[in-house]
Amino acid sequence: MYFPQRAGQGCRNSSKIGLIKPFAPYGAVTFRPMAEGPKKSARTSDGSRLFSCRRFILLDRDGTIIVDKEYLSNPDGVELLPGAAAGLALLRQAGFGLAVVTNQSGIGRGYYSVQDMHAVNERMSALLAAAGVVLDGIYYCPHTPQDNCPCRKPRPGMALRAAAELGFTPDQAVVIGDKAADLGLAHAVGALGVLVRTGYGAAQESMLHTPPDIVADNLFDAAVRILERDGMFERGNGQ
Ligand SMILES: [Zn+2]
């Protein structure tokens, strides 16, 4: 399910054209950024919540942004996947907010600590920052499947918390991940679901009950397809 930006909100400014450095094999990419809305949600005088018109990308971590190394707990093992930094930079420049939502059952299983996970996240954030990408938030579920918690993907707890804290409407968001649980999350909150073929993505593609809204080779390909679908992307020869 996909909801376009509501008419009349003035959230999109199609007059500005952006340009991002080429990323093989795509060449230069030109796009029209959204006008930046208020970054936080605010409350009106009658107490109702006024959401930002800024749209968000909800990102899986392992197998989507960084190489999936099965219960990674050592920051030295963090490796960005090809296209990850460039794709996130493109989405950011187009005006999207970026939040990571990651299942970390290794904590609940006792394989590593919350501090270990934060160290891995910090290393990932540093590598992304070096490419000019800042994440708006990282949300994690520390539970095992047996805990039956409301936050483990495909359940919507992390996405709903991110929406409340960062101020966006979940059904206007885009979920990107390499597993069926990520697409399940997209379905649960009415967001656009994007499967990347990195990590387990290529293997999961043939096993999905319902096809994802978008299937992409990596995060950069996903970014281009999202902007294309939004009419914000033009395949061109920008310099
Ligand atoms: Zn949980």
Characterization of the model:
The chain starts with 17 loop residues before the first strand and ends with a strand. The strands form three sheets. The chain has a six-stranded parallel sheet with strand order 7-6-5-8-9-10, sandwiched between helices. A three-stranded antiparallel sheet has the order 1-2-11, covered by helices on one side. Residues 1-16 and 36-42 have low confidence and may be disordered. It has seven helices and eleven strands. With 239 residues, it is α/β, with parallel strands linked by helices. 28% of the residues lie in helices and 17% in strands. A hairpin with an 8-residue loop joins β1 (18-20) and β2. It binds zinc ion. Zinc ion binds at residues 141, 143, 149, 151-152.
Q: How is this structure best summarized?
A:
28% of the residues lie in helices and 17% in strands. The protein contains seven helices and eleven strands. It has helices at residues 84-93, 105-108, 114-130, 157-166, 180-189, 201-205, 219-229; strands at residues 18-20, 29-31, 42-43, 49-50, 56-59, 97-103, 137-141, 174-177, 192-196, 214-216, 233-235.
